[in-house]
Design brief:
Length: about 1900
């Protein structure tokens, strides 16, 4: 029972205080005058009666009523019901205080009455119960008695009011009467824990709306400041009450003032949260509050300031709550759109709506806090329960760790109160407890079903309503009300003064009665609080589907069992998958459970590798844990880290904890608290379980197994029994619990020192000082640290340890543990003595631990590092030696995606760990991928040292391996390879530096002799010395003599030293110097004739030289072309137009030219000497090729010097001041050119003009083309010279354009019919005269006999002279600098250094375009095609660009390749390269930067560019080249690899000087080392067909004209492909050795099913080797067969030739002759040609060529072998061969007429002598026979006639009929010859039979 009202107070206006601005109130009377003992009188009531201040009014206001709430110091709420009315002020003073001090106009209320003031007076009831209506009625009654003058004693009424007692809860109704004939019914709620709200909640939603109230609700829960504004006090109170009611079951524990008086407004700037209401007249004062959420009830707005962030409910809940509220508040919304809305829908009554809204929020809390009881830790049960909530676990299990709202709520004071109040396991329960325990499942099930949700809400609302209004029929109240308008009565006497005595007497009597009455015992229904379903059961739906996938857990389990079974390789394979799985929570839990199984008696000793695995798993597990450890992973690992250990040495054991300290969770004090409480709970549970088991053993056995009781259940049981226990028993239990907690505290002090002290304590380094440092702020400890403080000073000295080094870390850890111990012990009631004991112990614990750690640290340092994979040694070439042993490195992935498992997928081959080796020839990385899924593969990347173009250091990369890597390098090679290597930490940085120095020394040797090609086979130490051993002195001396002679020869001339000192060659770029003087010697004009004209008396050494020179490639080639012979007597045959001149045999005229040169017959040697000076580097024009048909010649030279240009084009008739030197030279130069022109046979016209018509008639009649295909030369010219032309290219006679696949585009080329309209001259002039009028006089109607292709820049201002017979084509070419730049960009595009962020294919194409590589290739091809065109039409061409050794060489070589099929054979191409590149002095060493001197100039890939051009042509004409694409790649690789001497040095002169040129003869014996790449290629080519192109089927005299548009060019795959399994495949010996090992490895594991399936990775395997093309495969099988049969295997080339020959003979009719160029019968040839091209196009490359399919090649080979007369074949072999070979005696394609009414169809026929039948197939590839004609049934073969539907194009004579006994077959062959051949064959078969 409780008093209805504690105090009755009468408060009035205080007239004495009027002086100051605002008036004040004073308490006039209060009853009782003494304070109650249990409830002191609250202060400041007078403020709250007039919250907006005491003022006088000029008129009487109607009485008002509101309830203010005061909170006392014990946070008890006092409800002050204020009833205010106005009384006239007695003494009428002059009006000075009107409201707010403003003057108001006074209107007299009646004519009689003088102006009067009215002062407010309040009747106040102070109560601890909130019965607002009862108070309103009671105070109203008192006022009525007073105002209406009822005859009832006010004292009595007040006395009765103050003595009335009512029950607090229980739902009883109590009728009271105050003795004035009134009657009131007081209804108490059934359960006082549920708030009473009547209609206030519904009103709040009406005023503010759903969203605003939700904002306020969240703000209140997350402890923001909330301010209500309204002009009604009662509404402020209601709104505040409503907000509190919504927060149930949480209680608001901060400042709560529903009505704040004006004088206390500064309370609003308090820093703590609050809910306050203020009258809206003070709105202006609230404007400057920056952090307060202001709700204006009258305006319906909620204003959230910018700086305040309100966390809203977590997502699905927010939406669901909104929807539910909207269903309750606005039921019409659902049906608003219906065509026929139901008429019955109406909202519930306001009171009911109020309860429905609260029901929504009650459900919301049940969903938010579901399962909270499973996270309660009960630490003590007796004397009273101590309960803690495990916040992190709750958030973790609910999956809401990231959620702001819930986190803040759980950290808030309201929730702390909730745990204290509702945590107790044994208490009475209310609606919320039931909801959260039993209805959660139902709420889950109903989610999304609006009807069911609404039904549930209504049920709950019903219960809430019942709680406030249990009885429907309420007895009638009867309370007198004052008469209407009574407050306006004029002569109302003031409220009387009451008699204190009377009231006091009534009160005293009532209290006396109460004391005698027996105490009313409220029977509390206590019970065990139900826990509800565990969170896991509720949360299943939220579980992340992936995380729980059983497969992942399986992987984790398997891996752990492998580790403990010591199957390390298996474990290693699974390991990355395990690490990936660890991202999921389930997998981490699984890991802890699995590891737990392997712990016996708290200990598990592992070996080093196991230990390492377990540690890595633990670390991976912990690294994703936050400091909160919300999933309890760290908690589960905590016992394990002290269990797993390894023996380091006898007596020293290292535990896992020393390796898993680096995680922030260990420094979080809340984690330790939660862990501690959890353990304490388990121990206390065990404590009581043991007791029970002793007592109830017999009972239990009968009951059967019980479920394990939770700690809370045990606690509630204990609490129920507590009152019944004896005092001793109680004490004993308290003491047991206390010591349990104490022992755990010691245990935890140890555990914390394990995880906080670093292994190396000397470093004074704490794990995460950040984590430890702010620990004060982290722990919201309620404990004062006084005890800790008192002990802290002394512990160091007490402990007796004073170790200076470790003290810092130690102190820190000690302080941390002390703080922890203080907090938990105080909270869990450990006695003070025990606590002090702990403080003494902790320093000792820490110190002891430091000592053990020192030993462990010492030993662990001695451990051998974890076994890394052993270094694999690379295979080396013969003569290649290791300069530096392998340094352990990681090969990091670069921008090429394939190897890193990019878009192709598959496991990443990179990063790989292995070692980098430096040999005399290469840099090699060899290792294995770190990804264990491909751990068995070997990764090799290497490149020749000579090809290194750039090395740079990269910023440190954190390796994928867990080792922090020191430094990272990137090495780039011009063989399109990139090594990004990161050195392992075991590699000392100085050894990396040594590696770099060695690399430099090898990359840039002092002299060419230092390169690998020279040093091979010598020990590397000598390689560093400049001189190599003389292998063959005689040759060496010969070459020395040669050089001496050269110098001598020059010496005999008049030598004049020049002042000009030319720079060294190395520094000289391709700029033109006046002259090229190597020895600074200039040869003056007057020559000593005798030295220059070769005489018959050459000294012996010279003779030898000449012989050698004759053997050189160029000489062989000159003889092949018939360009002059070199007879022994050196007499010239005068009829030859050209002769071979030996003028340069001593390299005196031009160092960079070969010794023998072709010059016009008529030019004397001494003239040559003079002419050479006009040209750069003395490279005067020489002939290098002659067109065998038109006899036009191709010449090459360097660019002209300035004066040469002038001389050449000087106008003839300009007056000259006498013959000057330049004049004579230029004349000689003209003479020279004229001589070239004269050498052309068609230069016969009398006028010296060769009209085109004459030319045509003379030279074109013989050839086989029609006029239509005349080339549009002019347009070509224009293109090359930079003009534009409408036609994209030209088509010429006698050659193929592009490839066959382009036939569709033919039409786009303008094929001009008429020659006359399209004379080339017209085109040319248009292109050339920039702006000169093309007058008729200028049009020479002929094509010039000689075109000079020169550099535009060089030929500026040169005007063509119509009288001369040559013409200059100025073109723009790129210089070497541009090539270098372009190549750099190309390398970066094809082998990017790092992955690009965007779309890789786009980035690649963009960077490819920016490199401009393809446009340079386009340019070269364009010029070459132009030259080919000119030569083919009979004009000679002189290519005279730059110094004549870069672009000139490219163009000249391409021209010859395109024009002359000989150069497209293996032999011819070699000759071409030797002649044009080597002999004519392309500066390989300089351009390849092969020595130290060339380092600055960098690498310029001129030769590579040429090979790329050849590759482009090869792609377009796959059947014209005898060599394959691989051959080109092989050359590209080795011309820079320095493995062979062929491409070293810059000219023949230098090679002779070094004694290289004539070495080969003497060196033949040393077979193992190949000095020349050509020998190597020959030898390889004999062994295997790797360089051979099976599609080779050339047409006679074919001139190729490739498309050169960029769209027709392809990026060479040489730039992009790589083979990680063996490194580059161009060092053939290295690549061969490997496949065998692989097979052996496969065979070992016989248990596994053997599969034929091969997996070929594009970047890993060598495709051509793993999957060879059909022909190579057949040849290989054949070879193997022969080997098995013990024969000497035949060379593959012989086999191949025989196959071809046999096909050719079979395909050719006996008598008829076919053009020799055709390999096979025309049909076959045609068939093969098209096939070849299409195959090429389809991306298969030349590897698959079906021209000779498997059967034919395998069958015809052996038969041809037999004809060779080798009879020794074993019988098996011959038997097998015989049957096979004779099964197809003859085959081919014929058209066959179908049976009656069927069409003609081509079929493949096979004539079989053995079976005596003619079979036919659908096609050649078909294996199934479609029909058989038995030859025994054939009666006759007769020539036939075409019938309907026969092929149109075929000659009539190609038809023949075959008559059998059954029917007549009609056949048709492709031509007459074939038909004849078939007839003959069948006849012979018949006759044989």
């Amino acid at each position: 029972m409780a008093r209805l009202a504690d105090y009755f107070v009468l408060v009035g206006y205080d007239p004495g205080k009027r002086g100051s601005g605002d008036g004040q109130g004073q308490i006039l009377q209060r009853f009782p005058e003494k304070d109650w003992e249990d409830n002191p009188f609250p202060q400041g009531i007078e403020l709250f009666c007039q919250p907006s201040g005491w003022q006088l009014f000029t008129e009487r206001n109607p009485p008002t009523f509101f309830v203010a709430v005061l909170t006392d110091i014990n946070s008890e709420r006092h409800y002050c019901a204020c009833f205010t009315f106005w009384e006239a002020v007695e003494s009428a003073q002059p009006q000075s205080h009107s409201r707010n001090g403003e003057e108001e106009e006074e209107e007299p209320s009646s004519p009689v009455q003088p102006a009067q003031l009215f002062a407010p007076k309040s009747l106040v009831l102070v109560s601890r119960l909130d019965h607002a209506e009862v108070f309103r009625n009671s105070l109203g009654l008192i006022y009525t008695i007073y105002v209406d003058g009822l005859s009832v004693s006010l004292e009595n009424v007040i006395g009765n009011l103050l003595t009335c007692t009512i029950p607090i809860t229980g739902g009883a109704q109590r009728t009271i009467s105050l003795g004035a004939g009134d009657r009131q019914v007081i209804q108490t709620p059934i359960n006082d824990s549920l708030p009473v709200s009547s209609c206030s909640v519904a009103l709040l939603f009406r005023q503010l709306g759903i969203t605003n109230v939700l904002y306020l609700f969240c703000a209140a829960l997350t402890e923001h400041k909330i301010l209500f504004l309204s002009s009604s006090y009662q509404r402020l109170t209601d709104a505040c009450r409503a907000l509190l009611a919504l927060m149930f079951p949480l209680k608001y524990s901060f400042t709560y003032v529903p009505i704040l008086p004006a004088q206390l407004l500064e309370v609003l700037s308090t820093p703590t949260p609050f809910i306050i209401g203020v009258h809206s007249i003070f709105q202006s004062e609230t404007q400057e509050l920056l952090d307060v959420v202001i709700a204006d009830l009258d305006g319906g707005t909620v204003n959230v300031p910018e700086c305040v962030h309100i966390s809203l409910l977590p997502e699905p809940l927010l939406q669901q709550t909104r929807e539910a509220l909207s269903m309750v508040l606005d039921p019409e919304l659902e049906v608003a759109d219906l065509a026929f809305p139901p008429s019955t829908i109406s909202a519930s009554s306001l009171k009911m709506q109020d309860k429905e809204i609260r029901a929504v929020f009650l459900r919301l809390f049940a969903q938010l806090l579901q399962g909270y009881r499973w996270c309660l830790h009960i630490i003590r049960i007796h004397p009273e329960p101590v309960i803690r909530f495990h916040k992190a676990a709750f958030l973790g299990q609910r999956g809401l760790t990231e959620d702001d709202f819930l986190t803040k709520v759980l950290e808030g004071m309201a929730f702390a109160g909730f745990v204290t109040e509702r945590g107790a396991p044994y208490r009475s329960i209310d609606l919320f407890d039931e909801l959260v325990a039993y209805e959660v499942k139902r709420m889950r099930a109903e989610e999304g079903n609006k009807q069911k949700i609404l039904r549930h809400i209504k049920e709950l609302a019903e219960k809430l309503y019942k709680n406030e209004n249990p009885y429907p029929a309420v007895t009638m109240h009867k309370v007198q009300k004052p008469t209407e308008g009574c407050h306006l009565r004029l002569h109302q006497k003031p409220f009387p003064r009451l008699d204190e005595g009377t009231v006091q007497w009534i009160i005293d009597q009532a209290t006396a009665k109460l004391q005698t009455a027996p105490p009313a015992v409220k029977a509390e229904k206590k019970c065990m609080v139900p826990s509800g379903p565990p969170i896991a059961a509720i949360m299943e739906r939220n579980g992340n589907a992936l995380a729980n996938s059983a497969r992942r857990l399986e992987v984790v389990r398997n891996c752990i069992s492998y580790v403990f079974e010591n199957k390390m390789l298996e474990a290693k394979k699974l390991f990355p998958a395990v690490l990936r799985a660890m991202k999921g929570r389930a997998a981490r839990h699984c890991l802890t459970q699995e590891l737990n199984l392997h712990v016996q008696q708290n200990r598990a000793v592992l070996d080093h590798q196991q230990f390492d695995f377990v540690i890595r798993m633990m670390n991976c597990c912990l690294q994703d844990c936050t400091a909160m450890d919300e999933h309890g992973i760290a908690a589960a690992l905590l016992p394990l880290v002290t269990a797993f250990c390894r023996k380091l040495s006898p007596g020293i054991t290292q535990f896992a904890y020393s390796c898993v300290q680096e995680h922030v969770v260990w420094t979080n004090i809340q984690f330790w608290e939660a862990m501690f409480y959890c353990d304490v709970q388990n121990h206390i549970r065990a404590l009581y379980l043991d007791n029970n088991e002793e007592n109830h053993t017999d009972e239990e056995s009968t009951e059967g197994p019980q479920e394990a009781k939770s700690a809370l259940e045990i606690a509630s049981e204990q609490l129920r029994l507590w009152p019944t226990m004896s005092r001793e028993k109680q004490q004993e239990l308290i003491q047991k619990e206390e010591s349990t907690v104490f022992s755990q505290a010691i245990h935890y002090a140890n555990r914390m020192s394990y995880l906080l002290l670093p292994l190396d304590t000397s470093k004074n380094r704490l794990l995460r000082s950040s984590g430890l440092g702010d620990v004060e702020s982290v722990s919201n400890s309620f404990v004062t640290n006084s005890i800790a403080g008192s002990v802290a000073e002394s512990y160091d000295t007490e402990s007796g340890f004073e170790d200076a080094e470790s003290s810092d870390v130690a102190n820190y850890v000690v302080r941390f543990i002390n703080r922890f111990v203080d907090k938990v012990c105080t909270e869990s009631g450990v006695t003070n003595e025990h606590l002090k004991g702990l403080h003494v112990m902790i320093p000792d614990i820490v110190q002891m631990h430091i000592e053990t750690l020192d030993a462990v640290h010492r030993e662990s340092r001695r451990l051998p590092p974890i076994q890394k994979p052993k270094l694999l040694r690379p295979n080396l070439l013969v003569g290649e030696e290791c300069v530096m042993e392998g340094l352990r490195v990681y090969l990091m992935p670069d921008g090429r995606e394939e190897a890193a498992g990019g878009y192709i997928g598959g496991p990443p081959l990179l990063p790989a760990e292995g070692a980098i080796f430096l040999t005399t020839y290469r840099i090699i990385f060899k290792g294995t991928p770190t990804d264990p899924l491909v751990g068995e593969q070997v990764v090799i990347r290497s490149f020749p040292i000579a090809s290194l173009t750039k090395e740079k250091k990269l910023a440190n990369v954190q390796g994928q391996a867990e080792h922090l890597i020191q430094e990272c390098w990137q090495l780039r090679s011009c063989t399109f390879q990139l090594l990004r290597i990161a050195f392992d930490e075991e590699v000392a940085s100085d050894s990396a530096e040594i590696f770099r120095k060695h690399l430099h020394k090898l990359r840039y040797p002092q002299h060419v002799r230092g390169t690998f090609a020279f040093t091979v086979g010598q020990s590397p130490k000598q390689a560093m010395q400049p001189k190599a051993k003389e292998k063959n002195p005689s040759l060496r001396t010969l070459s020395k003599n040669l050089v001496k002679n050269a110098k001598k020869t020059i010496g005999r001339q008049y030598v004049t030293r020049k002042k000009y000192m030319p720079p060294m060659w190395e520094q000289r770029s391709s700029q033109h110097f006046p002259e090229d003087n190597e020895d600074e010697i200039s040869v003056s004009e007057e020559m000593d004739r005798s030295t220059l004209t070769p005489t018959t008396t050459i000294k012996p050494s010279d003779k030898m030289t000449i012989n050698h020179l004759v053997e050189r490639a160029c000489c062989r080639d000159y003889q092949r072309m018939g360009l002059g012979t070199l007879s022994s007597s050196l007499t010239r045959s005068k009829n030859e137009p050209f002769r071979i001149s030996t003028v340069n045999r001593m390299y005196a005229i031009c160092r960079s030219y070969p010794g023998l040169l072709i010059v016009p017959q008529s030019i004397q040697d001494n003239t040559i000497q003079r002419i050479s000076r006009c040209y750069r580097q003395n490279r005067f024009p020489v002939v290098c090729w002659r067109n065998s048909r038109t006899k036009a010649v191709l010449l090459r030279s360097g660019g002209l010097h300035g004066k040469g240009v002038v001389g050449l084009f000087k106008s003839q008739n300009a007056p000259t001041a006498g013959p000057s030197q330049t004049d004579s030279t230029s004349l000689e130069q003209e003479k020279y050119l004229q001589a070239v022109i004269n050498s052309m046979p068609h230069y016969a016209d009398a006028s010296g003009r060769n009209t085109l018509s004459g030319f045509t008639s003379a030279h074109m009649s013989s050839s086989d083309f029609s006029d239509k295909r005349q080339p549009k030369l002019g347009s070509l010219m224009k293109q090359v010279m930079g003009g534009k032309d409408d036609g994209p290219g030209t088509i010429s006679h006698g050659g193929k354009w592009g490839s066959i696949r382009a036939s569709g585009r033919m039409s786009s080329y303008a094929l001009n019919v008429e020659i006359g309209s399209r004379l080339a001259g017209k085109d040319l002039l248009g292109a050339q005269h920039n702006g000169t009028p093309s007058e008729a006089s200028f049009l020479r109607q002929h094509r010039a006999s000689l075109y000079i292709i020169g550099d535009k820049s060089q030929l500026k201002g040169v005007k063509p002279d119509p009288l001369q017979h040559w013409e200059v084509v100025p073109i723009e070419v790129f210089d070497v600098r541009q090539v270098k730049a372009s190549f750099k960009k190309l390398m970066k595009a094809c082998v990017p250094g790092c992955l690009s962020t965007g779309d890789t294919s786009v980035t690649y194409l963009r960077s490819l375009e920016e490199s401009e590589w393809l446009s340079q290739i386009h340019k070269i091809l364009q010029i070459s095609v132009l030259v080919v065109e000119l030569l083919d039409t009979g004009s000679s061409v002189l290519v005279s660009l730059e110094d004549g050794w870069d672009i000139t060489t490219q163009v000249v070589s391409l021209v010859q390749l395109l024009s002359d099929p000989y150069y497209r054979t293996l032999e011819g191409f070699r000759l071409l390269v030797e002649k044009e590149w080597l002999s004519f002095g392309h500066r390989f060493s300089h351009r390849g930067a092969q020595t130290l001197a060339g380092q600055s100039s960098g690498f310029a890939p001129i030769f590579l560019q040429f090979l790329d051009c050849v590759h482009q042509i090869h792609l377009q004409f796959p059947m014209e080249f005898e060599f394959s694409q691989y051959y080109l790649k092989f050359l590209s690789y080795h011309y820079i690899s320095n493995r062979f001497r062929t491409f070293l040095l810059d000219s023949d002169y230098e090679r002779i000087e070094l004694g290289l040129l004539y070495e080969e003869k003497g060196e033949r014996k040393s077979q193992q080392v190949y000095k020349s790449i050509w020998d190597y290629i020959d030898r390889l080519n004999k062994k295997a067909p790797i360089f051979f192109n099976y599609m080779y089927a050339p047409e006679d005299g074919e001139v190729l004209r490739p498309y050169s548009n960029i769209s027709n060019l392809k990026v060479w795959d040489y730039y992009t492909e790589e083979t990680l399994s063996e490194g580059p495949s161009y060092d053939w010996e290295l690549a061969q050795g490997q496949p065998e090992h692989v097979e052996e490895a496969d065979r070992q594991d016989t248990s596994a099913p053997q599969t034929k399936r091969k997996i070929i990775w594009p970047c890993y395997d060598n495709r051509s080797r793993v999957e060879p093309d059909a022909i190579s495969k057949l040849l290989e099988e054949l070879h193997n067969l022969e080997m098995e049969l013990g024969q000497v295997p035949e060379r593959w080339k012989d086999t191949w030739d025989k196959v071809k020959a046999s096909q050719r003979t079979e395909a050719r009719p006996e008598g008829s002759r076919t053009p020799s160029s055709l390999l096979m019968s025309s049909s076959l040839s045609h068939h093969r040609r098209s096939l070849g091209v299409y195959l090429q196009e389809s991306g298969v490359g030349s590897t698959l060529n079906l021209s000779l399919d498997s059967d034919t090649s395998s069958t015809s080979t052996p038969s041809s072998g037999k004809q060779g007369g080798r009879k020794s074949t074993s019988t098996l072999y011959s038997q097998f061969q015989m049957s096979e070979s004779e099964n197809r005696s003859y085959e081919g394609s014929l058209y066959k007429k179908g049976a009656f009414m069927k069409p003609w169809k081509p079929r493949w026929f096979v004539l079989d002598k053995t079976k005596h039948q003619l079979r036919y197939y659908d096609s050649r590839m078909d294996t199934e026979c479609k029909g058989v004609i038995d030859l025994a049934e054939v009666e006759s073969i007769t020539p036939g006639a075409p019938t309907i539907g026969a092929p149109k194009t075929v000659d009539e004579k190609a038809f023949f009929d075959l008559k059998t006994t059954k029917r007549v077959y009609n056949f048709c062959a492709q031509d007459v010859q074939l038909a004849q051949q078939w007839i003959d064959r069948i006849q012979s078969c018949l006759s044989d039979a």
